[in-house]
Amino acid sequence: MQPLESIEPLGHAIAMLLPGIAARADEIEQTRHLPADIAQSMAQAGAFNILRPKSLQGLELTPMEMVAVLHAIARAEASAGWCAMIGSTTALNAAYLAHDVAKEIYADPHSITGGVFAPMGRADDMGDHYVVSGRWQWGSGSANCDWLSGGAMIFKDGELQRFDNGAPYHRMMIFPADQAELLDTWHVMGMKGTGSGDFTVKQIIVPKERSVSLIADKPVEPGALYQFPVFGLLALGVASVALGNAAGALDEIEALAKAKKPQGGQRSLAERGVVQTELMRAQAKLGGAEAYLRECVEACWHGATTRGELSPEERALLRLAATYATETSAEVAKTAFTIGGGSAVYMTSNLQRRFRDAHVATQHIATASSVYELVGRVALGLPTDLAML
Fold first, then answer.
1. Which ranges carry the Acyl-CoA dehydrogenase C-terminal domain (predicted)?
2. Helices and strands of the chain, counted as H and E runs
């Protein structure tokens, strides 16, 4: 993984925060959302600004630099990494908005945005604006956001509008966070500190220019970063957090193995051959997944910088590598948990939290097992709807 310190000036600022974030892991989980002071310190460091356009005081990092930043934060604490990932990827909306509109939302480099792509809302077309109502699940980091966004089906004169292919037409509606009601629904097994509860709005007005279609619209920002598909970058973000969490699990088990002697035993776990074997297998698995992810991202970056676009095959490889990395990370976290033995099951153990967080990450739609079927269709030359690839 690329050293965090090589990404300056962001890397040093983030690195300074990580010990403090790791030390508050239990508090983050018990609070069930990222504490406001941690969110603000991350915002001041630039953690939510990594994909924002340079024209809006953003950092506009490369995809591999994004991976390194999110990996490092998640290695310290997975929920913090997840919130950084959501804040960063939702800021991609800025690349699709007219600059004067985007400036209203994203000009402050320390602002935090969030949202949910899934079109769980309804937007009635009223000419120059939409009237929007809806309720969205998985609103990660919403408690600390200045702006939120939510996907909404578009209706005009009571009739559902459709894309040219007949699919329901929907757009992301962007609105001030104080127009939404946050609902306490995030009672889950893992990623507890992400605060990914539901949020709802009722009959709010959203100017048309403050909405985007990540399927039909084209980015107005010229950078190569914005030639990457948004859903590919989202999947890459999920994988980055999963990989960082798995690396954190290996950190935990290595420290435990050196210190722990099984009950009735004279040797530490580290001195047992089976522990050495399983730990090295886990490290090799994780390193292989990281290497494959890097290879695919670099190939896609070459396409974005030389051709100004990614081919369907490149987009499919990006999703494949991200999904495999997320899945492998969960296997590695499970191995670390298993090696930890009975002590790992206690809530005082970081290994059980790493295990739970890893398996929640695998449920995200961007890296779920269904992605294998989607990219398999592309690889086998079958007709495939590429809109969500």
1. 236-367
2. 11, 8
CATH code of the domain occupying 113-212: 2.40.110.10
Please give the structure tokens belonging to residue 89.
Answer: 């990827």
Q: Which residue has the tokens 């051959």?
A: 273
Phi, psi of 264 (to 5 degrees): 85, -5
Q: Which distant-in-sequence residues (6+ apart) come within 8 Å of 247 by Cβ?
A: 1, 71, 75, 286
**pLDDT digit string, tens, across residues 254-309:** 998 888 777 666 788 888 989 899 999 999 999 999 999 999 999 999 999 999 99
According to CATH, what is the number of the domain 228-380? 1.20.140.10
| Three-state secondary structure readout of 215-280 | CCCCCCCCCHHHHCCHHHHHHHHHHHHHHHHHHHHHHHHHHHHHHCCCCCCCCCHHHCHHHHHHHH
CA-CA distance, 288 to 251, in Å (whole number)? 18
Q: Which fold has domain 4-95?
A: Butyryl-Coa Dehydrogenase, subunit A; domain 1 (1.10.540)
Q: Which of 80, 79, 78, 75 is nearest to 45 (CA)?
A: 80
pLDDT digits (tens, 9 = 90+) for 25-78: 999 999 999 999 999 999 999 999 999 999 999 999 999 999 999 999 999 999
What are the structure tokens assigned to 129, written together?
């604006």
The span from the first CA to the last CA of the chain, in angstroms, equals 25
Query: Three-class SS of residue 379?
Result: helix
Strands (E), 85-146: 113-125, 129-136
Integer Rg of the chain from CA: 21
pLDDT band, residue 5 (cuts 50/70/90): confident
Every domain of the chain and the residues it spans: 4-95, 113-212, 228-380
- Helix, strand, coil percent values for the chain (each to nearest 5): 55, 15, 30
